[in-house]
Amino acid sequence: MVSTARKGENEVQKYFEKRGYTVSRVSNRRGKHWDLEAVNDVGEILKIEVKTTKKKKFALVDLSDSQVVSSKDKTRIISLKADELWIVIDIKARKPKKPKLYRITRERFERLVSQFSEKISPKLMWKIDDRTAEKYAEKIESKRI
After folding, report:
1. 46 or 135: whose pLDDT is higher?
2. Which of 11, 93, 103, 141 has the smallest number of CB atoms closer than 10 Å to its CB?
3. Alpha-carbon gap, residue 98 to 80, rounded angstroms
4. 92 within 8 A of 54, measured Cβ to Cβ
5. How large a percentage of the chain has pLDDT more than 90?
6. Nearest-5° angle of CA 65, CA 53, CA 118?
7. What's the pLDDT tens digit per position in 43-99?
8. Degrees (nearest 5) of the Cα angle 46, 52, 57?
């Protein structure tokens, strides 16, 4: 049985491979705090964190300390460790429907956390308000492969 997280990673991997990238799964490698690395034809590496949910509307799964750069006192997020954060929504969708893909670049994520720090809470994991995060997410159109 494939986990929800793995299904989301598979969708993002297919998206990049369809565009000519070579994709490696790195989430289990020591020192890697993201899920995938996509390498383009000139050798540039894109580090990708993938969050997946079964929900049908936009939802951002909590981020762990290992996935973000936080302040020294651990009271606020400063940035992502990955270059991009991908959110996969409605992973249980059946054909002809397909999961929805969203992307938040590191730069947009930094703007989100600096402008809306009051919407981010450091409990056991970092929780960012879904409606606020959705404003920074770029919806990616993708055809099912």
Report:
1. 46
2. 141
3. 27
4. yes
5. 41
6. 50
7. 999 999 999 988 888 888 888 878 888 888 877 788 899 999 999 998 776 677 788
8. 120
Distance of alpha carbon 34 from alpha carbon 109, whole angstroms: 15
Distances 86 to 1, 64, 71, 75 between C-alpha atoms, Å? 22, 15, 23, 24
This model's pTM is above 0.70: yes
Question: Given the structure tokens 């959705």, which residue do they identify?
Answer: 134
Q: Which residues pair with 126 in a beta bridge?
A: 63, 122
Per-domain residue ranges of the chain = 4-140
**Which burial class, exposed, middle or buried, applies to 89 when counting CB atoms under 10 A from its CB (0-12, 13-18, 19+)?**
buried
Give dist(CA 103, CA 85) in Å, integer.
Answer: 6
